[in-house]
Design a protein that fits this description.
Layout lengths: L1 H11 L8 H32 L10 H7 L5 H16 L1 H8 L5 H7 L5 H9 L4 H14 L2 H15 L13 E6 L5 E6 L2 H17 L9 H19 L14 E2 L2 H5 L8 E3 L4 E2 L1 H8 L27 H11 L14 E5 L14 E5 H7 L4 E4 L5 E4 L5 E2 L5 H5 L1
Antiparallel strand pairs: 1-2, 3-4, 4-5, 6-7, 8-9, 9-10
Helix pairs in contact: 2-4, 3-4, 4-5, 4-6, 5-8, 10-11
Length: about 400
């Protein structure tokens, strides 16, 4: 390992600006080959650590946890390294190609499904020689394109179960959304082949329609803009399902003073799903929007509908959503689009349709309130909840305080 470190130190010290293009590319090819060889050796070492239980030496249960803690890897990256070690242990020809620097860790991940227990069992039942498959995979992985390797692996897996049931396309579909502190989000989309084709076709139509001379956006930026445009079109068309009497729309809550003030006003406005944006961006959105003035008094928008209307109207609902922000049942807080607008004093018993007599409750807690539970808004705006026996439901102390 000391020798490897010395060689790397020499590489790091090289003056790249003095190299011509052919020399730079030759250097890069060598580095990529070395990267593949190092990745193969890491995977082989991790596998041996896993077999011998080496992680226990540092008090850890698995090599995946060791790689997260001591190797500073993410959970996903640690999992890939552990799986790579298992794959190379079962496919010696692929392992040899990796050791020579011809196959990358990314391509090993493509091959990995072949070594799953269910696929190995199916291959053994059909008399498939894994050594022959190993040799073919090593050749394709080392000389073919990434797509060639994916197709070969998928073809092999399909042949293992030619008479199996056609999979339900919805089983493999998922969208995972991670929201960040600044309101931005990261999404991971998993789709079956047909769903993926529809997704790509729709995005590509927007990308191509939006291309013009001088467009300097990257491909990923074009796709991101296309996705937002598809959402804009769907929302503007008005054909999406109605949510609790209100058509789906982007909600921006901002004080009138901030909306009128030309200052940027960072964090002055709140979006419907909780992200905060600047007043400047809220003004930008308001250029093409319907603006509702929400006043919790008899002036302004006529919020008090008296006794002539039983169903909460869209503008009244928006006012209640603005006030409650979600289900008011203690400990719930379900988002507004899950909630009904509940009459605290039932309409049939003389209750009026106005903000003072309305509360947002999700379906579960709306049912609870109609079966003995009770919610009540205090003068300071806080909501309290009581059980049918009259005892109040209270939130416990913070976990760190409870543990103290």
């Amino acid at each position: 390992m000391d020798g490897v470190a010395v060689e790397l130190d020499a590489l790091v010290g090289a003056e790249l600006a003095l190299l011509a293009a052919p020399q730079l590319l030759d250097r890069l090819r060598g580095l990529l080959s070395a990267q593949n060889r190092i990745a193969a050796e890491i995977a082989r070492t991790v596998r041996e650590c896993e077999v011998t239980g080496a992680a226990e030496y540092d008090g850890l249960k698995s090599m995946q946890s060791w790689l997260r803690g001591h190797g500073r890897l993410s959970s996903a990256a640690a999992g890939r390294v552990v799986r790579a070690g298992r794959v190379l242990a079962q496919l010696p020809a692929v392992a040899a190609a990796c050791a020579e620097g011809a196959v990358s860790a990314e391509r090993v991940a493509v091959i990995a499904p072949i070594t799953r227990d269910e696929h190995l069992t199916a291959a053994a039942a059909q008399g498939v020689e894994l050594a022959e498959v190993d040799g073919v995979l090593a050749e394709v992985a080392a000389t073919g394109s990434y797509d060639d390797l994916r197709q070969v692996v998928q073809h092999y897996l399909d042949r293992l179960d030619p008479d199996g049931r056609e999979p339900d396309p919805t089983e493999g579909r998922s969208v995972t959304i991670a929201r960040h502190a600044d309101g931005s989000l990261t999404a991971r989309v998993e789709l079956d082949a047909v769903g993926g084709e529809k997704f790509c076709t729709a995005l590509e139509s927007r990308v191509q329609a939006g291309r013009g001379a001088g467009d300097i956006r990257t491909r990923t930026q074009q796709l991101g803009d296309a996705l937002v445009q598809l959402c804009d079109n769907a929302l503007a068309a008005g054909g999406l399902p109605i949510l609790r009497t209100v058509k789906p729309h982007v909600v921006v809550r901002v004080d009138l003073d901030d909306l009128a003030d030309p200052a940027p006003g960072p964090g002055a406005a709140e979006l419907g799903f909780g992200a905060r944006i600047s007043a400047a961006r809220a003004r930008w959105l308001s250029c093409d929007a319907s603006i509702s003035r929400i006043v919790m008094t008899p002036e302004g928008v006529p919020l008090d509908l008296g006794r002539d209307k039983r169903v909460v109207t869209p503008h009244l609902r928006r006012a209640v959503e603005h006030r409650d922000r979600g289900c008011v049942f203690t400990g719930c807080g379900a988002p507004t689009h899950w909630c009904d607008a509940h009459h605290l004093l039932e309409w049939i018993n003389g209750g009026e349709t106005n903000p003072a007599n309305s509360a947002l409750l999700c379906e579960r807690h709306h049912t609870k309130v109609h079966h003995g539970f009770r919610v009540e808004r205090q003068p300071d705006g806080r909501w309290r909840t009581w059980r049918p026996d009259g005892t109040e439901i209270l939130l416990g102390p913070p976990l760190h305080a409870a543990a103290a």
